[in-house]
Amino acid sequence: MEKITSELIQKVKQVPIENFLPSRFKVSNGKKFYLCPLPGHQEKKPSFVLYPSNTYKCYGCLRVGDSIQFILDLMGWDKHNKEEFIEAVNYLKKYI
User: Fold this and answer.
1) CATH no. for 6-93
2) Which of 13, 33, 45, 93 has a CA 20 to 30 Å removed from the CA of 6?
């Protein structure tokens, strides 16, 4: 298993979130950001926003983060759990 370095973490944080969104996310391209409804939310308008800074915010549940946090949230994982954090980083490595 490859060692998780701070350089690797910075590289996977640069992976555009829209590159690995599951197909259940119906993303519409805005002028400066992407919008989509978050699966599991009972909303009439999209509340999940992907920003050019490669961060996201869900205005429905108020979750925010980068690509690593997005995977952790999507999988229901905890960023303070070392094994789950490593799994999220390893998942994102294939998109570098």
Assistant:
1) 3.90.580.10
2) 33
